[in-house]
Amino acid sequence: MTTATPAAAGTRRHRGGPGGARPPETEPEAMTFRRRLNRWDVKASPYLYIAPFFLLFLVFGLVPLGYTAYVSVHEWNLLSGKGEFVGLENYRDVLGDRYFWKALQNTISIFVLSSLPQVLLALGIAALLDANLRGKTWWRMGVLVPFVIAPVAAALIFGNLFGDRYGLINEGLQAVGLEPIRWHVDRLASHLAIATMVNWRWTGYNALIFLAAMQAIPRDVYEAAAIDGASKLRQFFSVTLPMLRPTVIFVVVTSTIGGLQIFAEPRMFDAGGLGGSDRQYQTITMYLWELGWRVRNLGTASAVAWLLFGLIVLVALVNLLLIRRLGRGGGGSR
Amino acid sequence: MSGTVTGPSLAVTEASRPGGIQRRRRSAAGGVNRRPGFLVYGLLLAVILGSAFPLYWSFLIGSYDATVVNKDLPPIWPGGHFFENAARVFDAVPFWVALGNSVFVSTVVACSVTFFSTLAGYAFAKLRFRGRTGAMVFIVATMAVPTQLGVIPLFIVMSRLGLTDSLWPVILPALVNAFGVFFMRQYLVDAIPDELIEAARVDGCSMIRTFWHVALPAARPAAAILWLFTFMATWTDFFWPLIVLPADKPTVQLALQQLQSGYYVDYSLVLAGVTLASLPLLALFVVAGRHLVSGIMQGAVKG
Fold first, then answer.
1. Within an 8 Å CB–CB cutoff, is residue A99 touching chain B?
2. Alpha carbons A196 and A269: distance in angstroms, whole number
3. Domains and their CATH numbers in chain B
């Protein structure tokens, strides 16, 4: 499960840090009997309650992370297991492989193509939902329908819609006299098609986040703008958008980490599942999968995993900087 | 784009005519009193129909036999072959097994995540203990670590333990996660008055009874949302199950993948399968969709 995300956008609750001072909830002195048992209960219970997470994270999070590093400096076949120690050779191999760089470019290209249109569309839809609609819950649920469709299912549907020969979209293009596009062959076209699946699934979701932020804008601000003679369009661009800036940054930033790991959509875009004949839409995670489970070289695959980790940490740091710098100038809801 | 801007601005201007201002002050937050015009409804309807279209298309193609699907002009109305294609789906892949597996795995994971997250979230929100702040910061930091990183050693370990022929590999690592803990903590900080916990303690409740009788009931709304999101995320997960589950024990997503493999893709078969596979979550959405909406709008969830 891809996770993430803190208190958000729009809502201003949940401010205090984790260590906010609270009055002690028990006074062991006040208890008259079974004091020792009670004291032990008070002391140990919190640790027992948080133990499951830490235990699980240790076994399935931290240890595997270190173990990945160990695997990455060895020859390691999927079937025959561990081989010789090879130092950084696996990393050299990966960094010298042009398909690694191609996968990196593809991943970034698909992310860019999916984030910008998605944010613009979601803003528009949020603005529509922000009107005082009759049956507003139904409209909100309506735009969320694609979100409950699995990425695999979405990829299969769109793989058909974007079919090179009989696809509906190419039929449409030809119907209006345009040349059909080879969606599964041309690099940029394939990225567009994959980005479309991502946009389809997430636009409504993000629209709801933007809507929540819009509803947190005090209506007085609009009144003031209207009294000052701002047109409707001007109000949207001069009031709504600036106030939404922290939320927009938040949405884009949180989608980067998921975007770097995109797998199901490009994997299921064709039956081969390797990202096209010349890997024209192979992403980093697909590259990792191909190395590990097709080439059966877990050593180089682990090197890719660590490179991906480094990249994500880098992006997370840039994100932090961006939030600090841009968030400060914005509406200040975060 | 230009059209989408019109909606709220129209409403705002209308409402801010003289007389409108006072009325609006009295209304609840977010309440611009005037109903929007047909344009807003029309645009929204177009958006929803547009986003529902791929689903309809899936059913449409799934309801014809292959000879029709590969013609030049696609049909507009459903044909009569859906049940026939659906039956072929059950013949081609172990679809019942896949459905059962997905229901089982998603339910177990969702219940476990919800319970353990509530437990830990309660401890972080309401109990005092040494290292609380540090532990919470650590948990938030781990949310940035992508799960993909550990797949290789996890796979090695799971196969060493001989678990790769079972569903355990997709259940065990998912039993609790950082996001759930954080989410429940954020909710419970405000949801339970400290006095209530004190009262229970004074009345002689042990810590776990206090949790059970005070925290759990208070946590229900957030727990329901967390359960829903975890269930959906587990149901739609693909990467790790693809790596670790054998072909004869697929989840629904893996069954769909099996439908497409091979040189020739029979789209009426594949998309009938997609339609079938989407029904359970769509049904869940009909029942609990409004909770999903409010969960997202509380701004606390990003899958």
1. no
2. 12
3. 93-297 (1.10.3720.10)
